[in-house]
What does this fold into?
Amino acid sequence: MNTPILILLISILLFSLPLFSISSPHDTLLTPSSLSIPNILTSPNGVFTAGFHSAGQNAYSFSIWFTKPTSDGNLTVVWTANRDQPVNGKRSKLSLLKSGNLVLTDAAQFTVWSTNTNSIPPLQLKLLDTGNLVLKNPNDTIIWESFDSPTDTLLPSQRLTRYSKLVSSRSRSNFSSGYYALLFDNDNLLRLLFDGPEISSVYWPDPWLNSWEAGRTSYNSSRIAAFNSSGYFRSTDNLRFRALDYGIGVWRRLTMDVDGNVRMYSLDEKRSIWSVSWQAIQQPCKIHGVCGPNAICNYDFPGENAGRGCSCLPG
Ligand SMILES: *[C@@H]1O[C@H](CO)[C@@H](O)[C@H](O)[C@H]1NC(C)=O
Ligand SMILES: *[C@@H]1O[C@H](CO)[C@@H](O)[C@H](O)[C@H]1NC(C)=O
Ligand SMILES: *[C@@H]1O[C@H](CO)[C@@H](O)[C@H](O)[C@H]1NC(C)=O
Ligand SMILES: *[C@@H]1O[C@H](CO)[C@@H](O)[C@H](O)[C@H]1NC(C)=O
Ligand SMILES: *[C@@H]1O[C@H](CO)[C@@H](O)[C@H](O)[C@H]1NC(C)=O
It folds into this structure.
C-alpha cells in the first residue's frame, strides 16, 4: 500500500471517529457526538434500547424501550423525550454538545427538547441496565437522568416524586400526552386524576373516602413512591402492594394506561407478553371520563377489556 492511500485511510478513520458506529451496539455516547436514525444505544444487559421510535408517519420520538418486541410485534416504550413534538425521520438528531447540553433537533435544526445541562467536557450519556438513561460529567456525577422525568411508565427502582407524574398516552397508537395522570396531590396522597379539556377530577382513591378510610396517610410530605425488583410497591402515603407474581427475576413496569387505570405488568419472557400483576381500579366504570359525556358505562361487555362497555344515553 503506498503512502498517500495510507494517509487517506488514516484520515478517514480519524474523521469518522466522532461518528457513531452502527455495526456494534453501544451503551455510551461521548461528547461531542450525536445519534440519528438508525443509531441506537443498548444497555449492557441488552434489555433496553434507546433511539428513535416511530410515532406515526415520518414522525419519530426519542425513546427508551424494551429491546425485545412483544408477541404482537409492538415495542414496549418506557420513556420518551418528545412525546408531544415528534421529529422527522431524516436529519433529526440527538446531540451531546461540548457545552454539556443534550439536545434533540429536528430536520430544520430546531431544538425540540433538551436537558438544559452544562458541564465541562467530556460527558457520557449511558443507558444503564435498569433502563435509566444518564448523563455523567467527568467526575462521574449524574447531572441528568431519564428516571427523573417519567412519561407513562415507572420501572423498578425508579422513583415517582413530587416533581414527576405518569401521564397516559392519547391512545394505543398515539403516544402523545393523554388525559389521565398518576401523581402526588397537594395533600401528599398518590392519586389518579382525569385532566380533560373541559373537566378535571380525581377518581382514585374513591373521592368520597378520607385518607385513612382509603388506607392512606397524608402526614408524610416526602412524596416518594417506587417498587423494587421483587415487585413490592411502597409510597410515602402508605399505599403498599405486591405484584401477583411477587419475587425477583421478572421484569415489571407500572404504567398509566390509556384507559385511565394504572397497572403493574410482569413480563412473560418465553411468550413475550405482559400480564397484569396489579391494578388500581377493579371496577373500570369508576374511571372518570371513560365513556364521554353522552354515554353511560356498564359491565355487560364480557372479554378481555375487563367487562367494561359504553352505551349511548337514550334520547
Ligand atoms: C396524536 O394526538 C394529538 C392530540 O390529539 C394530535 O395532535 C396528533 O396529531 C396525534 N398524532 C398522531 C400520530 O396521530
Ligand atoms: C470535579 O471534582 C473536582 C474536585 O472535587 C471539582 O473541583 C470540580 O469542580 C468537579 N467538576 C465538575 C464538573 O463537577
Ligand atoms: C400495536 O401497535 C399498533 C400500531 O401502533 C396499535 O394499533 C395496536 O393497538 C398495538 N397493540 C397493542 C396490544 O397495544
Ligand atoms: C416519610 O417517608 C420517608 C421515606 O419513606 C421516611 O424516610 C421518613 O422517615 C417518613 N417521615 C415520617 C415523618 O414518617
Ligand atoms: C423489596 O421490598 C420488600 C419489602 O421491603 C423486601 O422484603 C424485599 O426483600 C425487597 N426486594 C429486593 C430485591 O430488595
User: Anything to note?
Assistant: The pocket of 2-acetamido-2-deoxy-beta-D-glucopyranose (ligand 2) is lined by residues 119-120, 137-139, 141 (CB under 6 Å). Helices lie at 3-16. The mean pLDDT is 88. The radius of gyration is 22 Å.
